[in-house]
Every structure is written in structure tokens, then in C-alpha cells.
Amino acid sequence: MNEKLTFQEKLDHELKLHEGDRVSTFEYEDQKYWLKQTEQVCGIMKLLKGDANRALRREVCKICKLERRHAPVPHIVCKQKNLEKSYFVIEDSGKTLKDWLNDPDCNSEQLKQILFDSAKALAELHLLKFAHGRPALRDICWRNGKVTFIDFESNIAHMPVEERQVRDLFVFIHSLYRYLGVNVTFIDGVINHYRKVGGEAVWQQSQQQIRKWQWLYYLAYLFRFKGGRDIKPIYWVLKHFKEAPRVRSAEEVGA
Questions:
Q1: 26 in a domain, yes or no?
Q2: What is the value of pTM for the model shown?
Q3: Residue 34 CB neighbours (<10 A)
Q4: In the chain, which end has fewer C-beta atoms inside a 10 angstrom radius, N or C?
Q5: Do 86 and 113 sit in the same domain of this protein?
Q6: Which residues span the domain enclosing 174?
Q7: Backbone dihedral region of 181: left (phi > 0), alpha (psi from -120 to 50 degrees) or beta?
Q8: How close are the terminal C-alpha atoms of the chain, in Å?
Q9: DSSP string, 22-49
């Protein structure tokens, strides 16, 4: 009879099996886990991306910090941080929002609930004075009403948290239009839910920030239907903030 592998033995096997792979998955005792290792980059990509090992160690530190504040992040089961090669293992958090959109068994009401839950989770993250960095739909998981943010590699810690939160909202809205298409009423409902459950201050700051880019509105208009998947949403993001009621002054917001 074969002896059952311990978790560490299983992990050591996966590390050898997926050596060089940035992300892989495995199961242990009917539980799914994700293994993330230092990205193997070379040549010009190493120059452009910087120190991949440092980026991964930075991501581990950020997730641990957020978990201590009970933010919606995955639980790190184990980790190794050293100067040569690092890795960490997290528990599976369910399908990403991108995957839910492509699930034929996910009806419109369930999809609405999933997106509303995600908007609420992003607002709550911002209320904790944190930011994700790139909350695209492929970096947000949902399972049984629980939302989890993954992939915290964006290196924008040098920016004030308020600016990072504005960036979060832009990325989130852009991603909604990227994957949902021109479903303005539905997407406005998701954004309005974010505003109602705690994100109003960030939304208003975002509206102020995007004014300087409104000169792109008429140029982006030309590509609103025929641009690439990353280009088309720009027009709709600009349109959302352009047509929304003007923000109140800082004094009114703080009143």
C-alpha cells in the first residue's frame, strides 16, 4: 500500500513538475490550490519587467498585509521568499468573473449578483484605504457570494493611495466594457452599486481626474464599435463620466 503524501511532499513534487511555470494548479485532499512561482523572463523582457523575484515577494507581502485587515484576498497556505527563487501557494477562490461571463449555465440574474458583489467588494477594499492595482474581471474571483481579489503584482506603491483607488475604478469600468460590450444600462447599474455601498468619494475623484482626458472623447468616438478590445472601452469609460452629473466641490463632499 502506497503511503499518502504529505502536503509538503505534494508541493515539492509540483515544484519539480512545473519548474519554470509562473502559475500552476494542483489538488490535495479534494482541495484545489494555486502555485505561483517567480516568472522566468530573459532578454528585453527582463529589462522591461524588472526583478520578477522581487515582484513576487512584494505580492506576498501585500496579500499578507491585506489578509491581516480582513480584506477579500486569498489565504496563503505556504510561501518561500529568497533572493534567487520564490513561490507561494494559495487556496482556490472559485472562477474569475471573466470565466463566469463565459459560463453558459450562468443566467443574467446570477451574473448581475456576481458583478454587484464584486463592485461592493471593491468599494469595501477602498474603504479600508487599500487599492488592488489592476482589478480587471480576470483578477476577481467569486464563489457562493464570496469575492476574492487575486494577482497583486502591479508595482504602483509609489502613488498615493487615493490615486491608486482612482486607477482601480478606471480599470474595473474599462474591464466591464471590455468583456460585457456596449451594455451601458447594465454596466451603469454595477457602477452605481459601487457608489452606493461606499465608493462615492472615489467615483467623484475619478470624475474630476478624467476631465483632463475628455479631449479624447471625440477621437475615441470613432473607435467605439470597431476598435480593439482594449481601445473600444476607452470611449465608453469617457462617456460614463462625461454624462454623469457633475461632482460636488470638495467642501460639499466633506460636509
A1: yes
A2: 0.86
A3: 17
A4: N
A5: no
A6: 95-254
A7: left
A8: 71
A9: SEEEEEETTEEEEEEE-----HHHHHHH
